[in-house]
Amino acid sequence: MSDWTPLAILSVALVGAWGVALLQQAIATGQVRPWVLVRSGVDGLREPLSRPDQRDAVLFHTAPALLVLAAVLTLAFVPWAPGFRGIDLSTGAIAVPAALAYVTPAIFMAGWGAGRPLAVVAGFRWIALMLAYAMPIAMVVTAVAAPAGSLRLSVIVDAQHAVPTAIVQPLALALWLPAASAVCFLPPFDLPHAPSELGGGAFGEYTGLDAALIRLAQRILVVAMSAMTVVLFGAGWHGPVLPPAVWMTLKTAIVAALALWVGGRVPRVQIDRLLPFAWKVANPLALLAIAWAGLVTLVFYR
Amino acid sequence: MVVTAPALVLPDEQSWALWGPDPAELGLRADHGPPERLRDALVPESSLGAAADALLGRLPDETAVQRSAAPTGTVSVDDPEPDDCSEGGDDGDHDMMAIVGNPSADGLIMEDLKVVHGPFGTALPGGLQLSVTLDGDVVRNATVMALLRVAADTGAPTAPDLLAPAAWRATLNRALDRPTDLRAVEHERALSHVAWLRALGRLLNDQRLATAAGHTVVALRRDSPTAQEQVAHLGSLLKRRTIRRRLEGRARLDADTVAARGLRGPIARAAGIPDDARGTDPAYVAMGFSPLTAAGGDAWARAGLRVAEALAAVDLCRRLADRSASTCHAVAAPAVEGPRGPLSAQRIGDRWRLSAAGADAARRAAADLMIGCEWSSALMAAVSLDLSPWNIDAHE
Predict the structure, then answer these.
(1) Are B246 and A125 within 8 A, CB to CB?
(2) Closest CA to B170 of B188, B152, B144
(3) Closest alpha carbon to B199 in B3, B392, B383, B323
(4) Chain B contact for A54, CB < 8 A?
(5) Spatial distance between the Cα atoms of B396 and B386, rounded to a whole number of angstroms
(6) Hey, is the C-beta of A178 within 8 angstroms of any chain B C-beta?
(7) pLDDT tens per residue, range B338-377
(8) Residues B84-96: tens digit of each pLDDT
(9) Shortest alpha-carbon distance between residue B137 and chain A (Å)
(10) CA trace torsion B306, B309, B311, B313 (10° rounding)
(11) Are strands B74-75 and B138-146 parallel, antiparallel or unpaired?
(12) Which of A54, A117, A125 sits opposite B114 (nearest CB)?
């Protein structure tokens, strides 16, 4: 990691968030109008900060910053190219779920700090959802790392130079994709804010800079989780003709667009059906994915 | 507190559909933010405020709308006192260190959360307010309040429910032995049912359903020849497995319950009871009309029935337009079937006795159905009944 790595990661976060905003606009309206985004962003920032009758103003105003921090930290572990591997830890695959763990308290702080019961309900919903999905996420990462024989993300990418993990471990991919979408609180997993149910939920009271930070954090999370999907399942930067970084960016954009597109076409999941599914179905399936990964590793990767 | 109608009819799908201009045409959509923010949005400078001004000219000048303090449809399981909640918001009275009380069904002791949902910015029509006590995210007590009623007026009668103006106009005209415009009633029924579908789409965050229903509302308002096709398309969207799983078996009201509670209109028909004032109306009988019914009585049956009725209403509109004006303006039936049930009016001297049968029973049923449900399912149960925010029975 060079001295310039933090700056490069921040640049990727901001440019990536801008790209996700354009994708959201294109999918929602069928048009790409960057100036509209700029104008609405500037208008939003001009709004004064919300000062509702919340019980915990410190928690309320700290939550957006913590959410951005968690998102950037997750993104920091993503290896974008052989020459730009972010924070290249030997335990990078496990560090990602650890970084994502900060999303949960951030959203609960937002809900609790707002001081509205429906915002608190949104916070509790989020905790229940993330408790249910933390295990599948961690187990899927373990399963994907098995063939590579390493938790270093760049090694996991290199292990897929011949066959992407998506083909070898489709069950792990099927478990990962909804979990990744849920972590980004994208529809159909937008349970912490669910506009039509919770009146904005955990984020309903935010205005001005706070609201802008929430949007920024969500978009950085989308970039980070899309990139992690490519790293874990899509062979990372590997691809013919084009430079590695271009391949990585293209694949990430495709995954992000897919996640956003699906979110607009599937009704919101119900928490009372999702939780039993997560505990009773997703967790056992994640164990099965680990067993399958072990079998594949023994047969093809030794 | 007397308020103007546009402010109250603005933020919900059905009022938009009936009173227009449609939000899609204006580039607006009904916001679902917190009530406080919606109230802020209704100041004249905002886009919604401008839309309210635009609507003002379309509303009947003589219709004054006021909020009623008297709640209706109150159901309480173990707390006979209504919740003492602040108006239009939630009290936020929670303290993690003071979680005491009786265990919930799951054995956990949870602090009650008191929530007031509405009267603006929800998937329900503007003017409906839910006061709910949550045990965790499960509804323990629920109160459904219709906050709107037309101020008592001994002068010329006006539509007392702004979500069914044509049906009420027809009802009042019949009471005065004047011709009634059945085509307008059927057009309103189609619009109302499709607008309800859009509200359902927004509640479930189903963009395809919400968008398609929005386009269909525009087509219906313009009397577009493609409207029937578009309504049929809504039926196919409704049959998707993702939607069906959300609605099927939820908020069930079987035929016996419907009869015992005095529920009428589409709620009764979705339970298999052919309760439709049009079935005995000579004007409709002459056209070979027979009431549509569905089986099951759950949210899925009610949604399917409304789509089928919207389709039939578009067809009836077309047939009524083809007929001569005298046939179209038929009379001599005691009640008019509105979008939510039968409406009737009786003139007693200088005063009017108005009735929207089953409206209050529906609100009570909604409160009852919500209890024991997780919050999103409870909301879906309330929305599935297509409640009216107008107190008609109280108006005399």
Answers:
(1) no
(2) B188
(3) B383
(4) yes
(5) 24
(6) no
(7) 999 999 888 777 777 888 889 999 999 999 999 989 899 9
(8) 333 333 444 444 4
(9) 6
(10) -130
(11) antiparallel
(12) A117
CB contacts < 8 Å between A and B, how many?
95
Q: Does A208 touch chain B (CB under 8 A)?
A: no
* pLDDT score for B393: 57
pTM (2 d.p.): 0.82
Per-residue confidence at A35, pLDDT binned at 50, 70, 90? confident
- DSSP helix/strand/coil, A131: helix
Reported ipTM:
0.84
Closest to B65 measured CA to CA, from B23, B123, B130, B15: B15
Give chain A positions within 8 Å (CB) of B242: 266-267
| Nearest residue in A to B12, CA atom | A196
Enter the tokens of residue B171: 């009802």
Q: How far is residue A142 from each of residues A146, A169, B138, B258, measured CA to CA in Å?
A: 6, 12, 36, 54
Does residue A204 belong to the interface with chain B, where contact is any CB pair within 8 Å? yes
Q: Chain B neighbours among A 143-172 (CB < 8 Å)?
A: none
What confidence tens digit (pLDDT) does each residue in B154-212 have?
A: 455 566 677 888 898 888 888 888 888 899 999 999 999 999 999 999 899 888 898 89
| Contact check, Cβ <8 Å, A120/B208 | no
A200 interaction partners in chain B (CB closer than 8 Å): 32-34, 37
The predicted model gives A200-224 an average pLDDT of 90
CB contact under 8 A, B90 and A266: no
Of A262, A248, A120, A80, the C-alpha closest to A189 is A262
Torsion of CA A194, A24, A52, B121, to 10 degrees: -50
Cβ atoms of residues B55 and B63 within 8 Å: no
pLDDT of residue B94: 42
Whole-number Å distance between alpha carbons of B51 and B47: 6
Nearest to A228 by CA among A104, A128, A145: A145
Q: Does B230 touch chain A (CB under 8 A)?
A: no
Contacts of A53 in chain B (CB under 8 A): 92
Of B32, B91, B208, the CB nearest to A196: B32
A141 HSE (CA, 13 A, CB side): 20
Whose structure tokens read 């509302």?
B217
- Please tell me which of the candidates B32, B113, B242 has its beta carbon nearest to residue A266: B242
